């Protein structure tokens, strides 16, 4: 265990084998099948991904929940592609989407700064954030935020979810939710940069606000399947937009 800089968050590291072992020993129960079928029914449509992909994704969700229960933890992240990329185990895209819907901070790629940001957003604003990879579009000075694990309850944990589709991960495997963001919705971007000793003695926040202007279709666009285009306030130079894995979330804060 160790503290994450000055955030008050305690990090506990586990070997990826724990995830593998629980997944491989968990039978596909009636509960998993029922959860998967309900999830499929809630989706606007399902493309490329199939029912078995969704069942596998729900199984990964319950594996992650079991790890949290065993470790008495409040949030989770893992080196998703590094640990699972060559395994016949569902990537945790559905897992993280659903956990963030449930109010359990969950983050891709073992990014501790993004974990701190997700904790902050959920605890302060009662809604999940969307961890994304920022892509600059210089044709209209916007930022496209792209990832494959977007939550659907963007309006709040107790509010109706946004519509979503079930599609393949951009690596053409598994099932992931493609959440449709409201055009014209005001959003906030937050990035937590944890302190790094003498190089940066205190943690920093990068905060911006903007407006959703489009949901990019992937394909034909490349990258992760949830690709939301945002026009930020203040005339930022998009090629030098600061940070990475910022969280986008609904509301102007």
From TrEMBL:
InterPro entries in the record: Fucose_isomerase_N/cen_sf
GO molecular function per UniProt: intramolecular oxidoreductase activity, interconverting aldoses and ketoses
Does the UniProt entry include the keyword Isomerase?
yes
A GO term from the CC aspect: cytoplasm
UniProt keywords (A-Z) are: Carbohydrate metabolism, Isomerase
Q: Which GO terms describe its biological process?
A: monosaccharide metabolic process
- Its protein name is L-fucose isomerase C-terminal domain-containing protein
Q: What is the lineage of its organism?
A: unclassified sequences, metagenomes, ecological metagenomes
